[in-house]
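User: Second chain of the day. Same drill as before.
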Amino acid sequence: MIWRATALACVLGEPAAAGWSCDMAEENCLTGCERANVTFHIDPNQFVAPQNANEPPRRQVTRVSMNDAVFVAEAILMQGGAEGFYEDGGELGRRLMIVQPDGEARLTLQPRNITLTGECARVDGP
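Assistant: Same format as last time:
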């Protein structure tokens, strides 16, 4: 019984998910280049396997701030530690961002066919 209480305390006492704060700039651009400040946090607990096989699939989401826009996107957590998000805005376009564990990042904006690259730093959870 003490073990269960200790395990529960450890789970409940986990800090909030760490996130990324990124400064991005358009790749291969000389003038009038697009820039973006991007911040997002991914809660890894969303990726835990369901306890019951009959549970419906869960969406893994993250709230993203990009310049003046705030939106919800599908969270990406890859083996090897890469993280990111994907947002499909229909006719407005799609955004895909991947951040490597060392902070190197790439953001693709479609259908404008713009790629931004930059560096991200770890920040505390929301």
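The two ends are 33 Å apart (CA to CA).

User: Great, on to the next one.
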